[in-house]
From TrEMBL:
Keywords: Membrane, Transmembrane, Transmembrane helix
Stretches that traverse the bilayer: 20-42, 49-69, 138-159
Signal peptide extent: none
Originating organism: Paraburkholderia hiiakae
Transmembrane helix keyword on record: yes
Stated name of the protein: HPP transmembrane region domain-containing protein
PANTHER family cross-referenced by the UniProt entry: TRANSMEMBRANE PROTEIN DDB_G0269096-RELATED
One Pfam family here: TM_HPP
Length: 170
């Protein structure tokens, strides 16, 4: 999805703008619904379903759903792998900026190696070093939250675009 520009306006510039504006509104609606539902689950269960990087995940999931970074394998795999890496480094090396940098760099390389790159997940090791959670952080919010966003995205895109997401190759 691209944003409207003067260059994209032609003979049917108004219809192009309406199409792009509709896509932008759908992206915003998707992000709102997903984050509101996950936030509601957090409030109702008194569990930390929300991870700071999930906002950026919604940018990709609803704004650029056909990007390779927006596919379920990347969203779930990227979040779980980077949180696991962050937790391992925190517990093996202790807190500090050098172990945090090792965790983030290692997480990046592991996502690339496993073909589960999800850029928002790259912030998970940094979040982990800032918050210093226990091992349960891997399950909730990381895994359960990422799976929830993917399920919400799947339902959302099934309704909005009649089953066009995820990419069959992704």
């Amino acid at each position: 999805m691209t944003t409207p520009t003067a260059a994209s306006a032609g003979a049917n510039g108004a219809s192009t703008w309406r199409t792009q504006a509709g896509g932008i509104l759908l992206a915003g609606l998707g992000a709102f619904v997903a984050l509101a539902l996950v936030g509601m689950l957090a409030q109702e269960t008194s569990e930390p379903w929300i991870l700071g990087s999930f906002g950026a995940t919604c940018v990709l999931l609803f704004g650029f759903p056909f990007s390779p970074f927006s596919q379920p394998r990347n969203i779930i795999g990227g979040h779980v792998l980077t949180s696991l890496t962050g937790l391992l480094c925190l517990h093996l090396f202790g807190p500090g900026y050098v172990p945090m940098a090792v965790a983030a760099a290692s997480a990046l390389m592991l996502m690339m190696l496993t073909r589960t790159v999800h850029p928002p997940a790259g912030s998970n090791p940094v979040i982990i070093f800032a918050v210093q959670p226990g091992w349960s952080f891997l399950a909730l919010p990381t895994m359960i939250g990422a799976v929830s966003l993917v399920l919400i995205g799947w339902i959302y895109w099934a309704i909005v675009k009649r089953g066009s997401w995820p990419n069959r190759a992704g």
